[in-house]
Amino acid sequence: MPLLLLLTLLLGQCQRPEEALPPQPLLPKDKMVSLLVQIHLTEARVEATNLPADSSRALYRQLHKDLLWRQDVTDSLFQRSYRYYAVHEKDLDEIYGVVIDSLTRRKELLNAPKPAPGTAPPADLPKWDK
Questions:
Q1: Which sequence spans correspond to the domains of the chain?
Q2: Which of 9, 17, 42, 105 has its CA 20 to 30 A from that of 121?
Q3: Which has the closest alpha carbon to 34: 61, 71, 88, 77?
Q4: Are 99 and 39 in contact (CB under 8 A)?
């Protein structure tokens, strides 16, 4: 009986996969949001080019690589961080909630009536648009 109790306590202390420690370094959620917004915009731009599939894949890969380079993020850091957040579905849901809101807001602003020349842009533009 004491052995069973000891095993139960030891097993209870083991870390489950869903409780894995975050990789170090890990991209913060706000950085992931910013990258994912830009990645989805890049995908849309490439799709709009109507290039053949192999050309559009090559273009997308280059633009993706350039985006990560401009943000000073390695591909491996991005992949590791994305995998971590994907395992933690609540975090990924939260991140994609903000991504979807950001993309929806951008679409609304693009479809909004254009202000008269010389007027100031709306104050609630996302920071990357200012």
A1: 28-107
A2: 42
A3: 71
A4: no
pLDDT for 117 equals 76
pLDDT at 129: 43
In this prediction, residue 124 carries a pLDDT of 61
Give, in degrees to the nearest 5, the angle at Cα 112 between 106 and 116: 120
Reply yes or no: is the peptide bond before residue 25 cis, omega within 30 of 0: yes
Do residues 130 and 109 make contact, with C-beta atoms less than 8 angstroms apart?
no
CA separation for the pair 95, 16 (Å, rounded) = 23
Give pTM, 2 decimals. 0.70
Name the amino acid, one letter, at 66. D
Higher per-residue pLDDT: 7 or 74: 74
